[in-house]
Amino acid sequence: MERDDRLGREMTRFLRDWSRRDFLRRTGQAGAVLAAGSGLAAFIEACGTGGSSGNSASSTVNTSGLPAVPSVPSDVATVAKKYTGKTVVVGANPSGLGGQINKLAAAQFEKDTGVKISFVVEPSSTSDLYAQYQRVFTSKGSTPDVMNVDVVYTGAFGQYLTDLKTVPLLPDQASKDYPALVQNDTVNGRLVGIPNAGDTGYLWYRTDLLQKYGFANPPTTWQELTDQATKIQAGEKASDPNFYGYVFQGNAYEGLTCNFMEWITSYGGGNVIDNGKVTVDNPNTIAILKLAQSWVGKISPTGVTAFAEEDSRNAFGSGQAAFMRNWPYVYSLFADPKNSKVVGKFGFAPLPHGPNGQASGAVGGWQYAINAESQNKNAAAGFIAYMTSDAFQKYRAINSTTPPPNDTTAKDPDVLKADPWIAVQTNRVVRPSKLGTKYNQGSTAIFQAVNSALRGGDVTQAVSGMKQQLQSLIG
Hints:
- With 475 residues, the protein is of the alpha+beta class.
- Helices cover 42% and strands 13% of the residues.
- The chain folds into 2 domains: 41-199 and 365-428, 3-Layer(aba) Sandwich (D-Maltodextrin-Binding Protein, domain 2); 202-362 and 432-474, 3-Layer(aba) Sandwich (D-Maltodextrin-Binding Protein, domain 2), CATH 3.40.190.
- It is built from 20 helices and 15 strands.
- Strands 1-13-8-12-9 form a 5-stranded mixed sheet. Strands 4, 7, 14 and 15 form a 4-stranded mixed sheet that branches. A two-stranded parallel sheet has the order 2-3.
């Protein structure tokens, strides 16, 4: 698990170098209360979501009101111009604000290099995206050229991806200050991914409702969350029967694996697989899963067992939930009066913990990769070099709340001002990528067992069955 441990430490360092005291001084409010924000961040940088829709960027006109994207760095442009006239197909999200930024970047890249960029349709679920990429690899499809790969999938897909040390520009990108992330993206000595965006889970809460019901601070333990949510829900349901205390991602998909990892680590239940052994079947895991099961139909709607990120976001953003677990993409959505009923009334904090653990957030994030069957590897490398350049990463972080994986960029004062949640301290939890090519099978075993328990199944049996399936995968 050394590789996983180093990745976790790297992600911790990535977002935790600022003290909470400094952060609160900047925001001026305890609990990191948000009063304002801007933009629509529909590009969900999470372990549960990918992209959707597709079209060419060559005819894009900037009607979004966004500032102009940075020019392609001269060293990148010089190399990329050698491939003028080529078309690079990119698996990314061309919808929403994040998509608009992608389109603007693609148009700028074409202007500066002569290389055209075309986006393809991708499913919104990471689990579905994994399956789609599997079909591409099985059929030896040559597109998309550029793939946006979940941080835990580089091990599973490594043999189907280009060694980025063999293409222009990207070996230099790998020398930036995220060595453990680069190690995560190195499979059998081959560099198969370049960090694109980092991410982690947070607790989002209604500041006005905490004040209304006499709570000075957001909950720091899961029991406090349960108690606060119960009290607030009881009061609010009198005027809104659809109001609930807590929403999260309970559907049977990758997002639930992230939630589960946060639960058990924060409760002292380990990391599912520790030191090469399946350790998930223990009293702390059983305890937190029983507590989570008790939320369903009480402080959480029965339908939470089918919730993904957007379901949770819609419930909270419409004013129908007191607390929510979600990713930072919600920041600008909740601060936008066009998309939110909680403008100026929400805050964020580390997720709660149990009596035997510490506040923990699952490591999410995405890596750029190049399809090994691509016919445009060098041109694709140029586009990735632009998208991961310091200037573009800073621009994107400020304008779309997409967290940069680069430590230096993440600590930039302008980035920190735009994305203050970056400073929140929490333990970063890595999903069990030790499963390698069997990760998707392992994650499926996890989220199906957890979803079964949330829907009322026997918790002990669910965890025992999960352990058996995982054990069979690692041998």
